[in-house]
Amino acid sequence: MASGGPPKLPGGPKPSGGPRLRSTRLAIVEQCLVDTLERLREQPAGPRVRELRAKAEVYERALRAWSTRPPTEEARAALLKLVLELNVDVMTLGKQPRS
After folding, report:
1. pLDDT confidence of 98, banded at 50, 70, 90?
2. Does the pLDDT of residue 99 top 80, yes or no?
3. Which long-range contacts does 30-38 make (Cβ < 8 Å, 24+ apart)?
4. CA 29, CA 12: separation in Å to the nearest integer?
5. Which of 64, 66, 78, 98 is a good FRET partner for 57, with 20 to 30 A between their CA atoms?
6. What is the pTM of this model?
7. Burial level of 12, CB count in 10 A (0-12/13-18/19+)?
8. Is the distance from CB of 92 to CB of 38 less than 8 angstroms?
9. pLDDT for the residue 79
10. 48-87 b/e with 16+ CB inside 10 Å = b?
């Protein structure tokens, strides 16, 4: 049977939100980053893959920093937009023929 707790996302322990529910937007950002990094690992190494991976890692660090200092609504919206754009870039890269 299920433990009754929230589902655990891959990528290590998550900051405890206490009784307060985590933001849906932040959960989307987190899962999107996990998916994006997984797709990048499947790509052959190259300058574009390194560039996209570096962006994903910067966004991940920003998200982790929010466990100690909660973001403003504007910052949440901005990171969501950046992460979704990155995800689209990575999916586009994955559809390109490999040379």
Report:
1. low
2. no
3. 30/63, 32/83, 32/84, 32/87, 33/59, 33/60, 33/63, 33/83, 34/9, 34/10, 35/87, 36/83, 36/86, 36/87, 36/90
4. 15
5. 98
6. 0.71
7. exposed
8. no
9. 92
10. ebeebbebbeebbebbeebeeeebeeeebeebbebbeebb
CB 57 within 8 A of CB 84: no
Question: What's the distance, CA 88 to chain centroid?
Answer: 13
Q: How confident is the model over 66-75, as pLDDT tens digits?
A: 888 888 989 9
How many other C-beta atoms lie within 10 A of the C-beta of residue 31?
14
Tokens at residue 62, please? 């920003």
